[in-house]
Amino acid sequence: MLLKKKNIRGYSLHKSSTQAKQQGFLYRFFKTTIRISFLAIILTVTFSLALRAVSGLWSRSKIFGIDDAPEKHAAIVFGARVYSNGRPSAMLADRIATGVDLFHAGKVDYLIMTGDGRTLEYNEPEAMRLFALSLGVPEEAILIDRFGLRTYDSCYRASRVYAIKDAIVVSQDFHVDRVLLTCRGLGLDAVAVSADYQRPNGYSRHSLTYSRLREIPATLGAVLDIIGKAKPETIEPKHPLSMK
After folding, report:
1. pTM value surpassing 0.90
2. Contact 195, 94 (CB under 8 A)
3. What is the mean pLDDT of the chain?
4. Three state DSSP letters for the chain
5. N or C, which end of the chain is more exposed by having fewer CB within 10 Å?
């Protein structure tokens, strides 16, 4: 009876020791995982910030005003928020107006309105087209790209679907350096004109802050898309308008 009790006690001690070792291993594994994850986050954020700074410096010489911008085949006007009544947001209105000014100044022959136009309920390019028409741009000078769902998609489709070789890209100053970087990676010869007519009072502080912060991971994403030779969600259909 005494021997049986000793065996039970020895088994219990052995089991407790095994459990303690397993718990210790799990604790060390969990602690190491946390450290590696934290280090990966720090490195990713640091690299993203550095990439953002480098792209800003690199693109500086490629950003012009309307008067000194070189003549190009087309202006690529990037979509942004459209309100439920079809009215462009302040940022989008500035982009369209800048593209229109480039057209009237003889800097481009066409305006490519690119954005999310997959549904009738929400259609950025159509709102852009109507706004440009109201500012005196003829219908035949406006090209609609309803599948510019991302900046990368818009640049890819301009180059590969619409066969644009050179362009002026139009967006706000916080965005154009990423656009230029993307165009360069896709082989599209591009310069930029910033669309900031209504700043600082026309844009909400929240919108500006969000847009600036968003560009940090978005720039990293653009580089990864270029390296990975990503394809947009939709490549077709091609537009029937002949680009001379």
Report:
1. no
2. yes
3. 85
4. CHHHHHHHHHHHHHHHHHHHHHHHHHHHHHHHHHHHHHHHHHHHHHHHHHHHHHHHHHHHHHEECCCCCCCCCEEEEECCCECCCCCECHHHHHHHHHHHHHHHCCCCCEEEEECECCCCCCCHHHHHHHHHHHCCCCHHHEEEECECCCHHHHHHHHHHHCCCCEEEEEECHHHHHHHHHHHHHCCCEEEEEECCCCCCCCCCHHHHHHHHHHHHHHHHHHHHHHHCCCCCCCCCCCCCCCCC
5. N
What φ, ψ does residue 78 adopt, rounded to 5°? -85, 140
Location of structure tokens 């009215």: 87
pLDDT at residue 200 in the model:
62
pLDDT in tens, 217-243: 999 999 999 999 999 877 776 554 434
The listed CATH number (1.10.10.10, 3.40.50.620, 1.25.40.10, 3.40.50.300) that belongs to domain 64-227: 3.40.50.620
One-letter amino acid of 3: L
Q: Which residues contact 69 (CB under 8 A, 6 or more apart)?
A: 102, 107, 168, 191, 193
Identity of the amino acid at 234: T
Contacts with 51 (C-beta within 8 Å, 6 or more apart), sequence order: 219, 220, 223
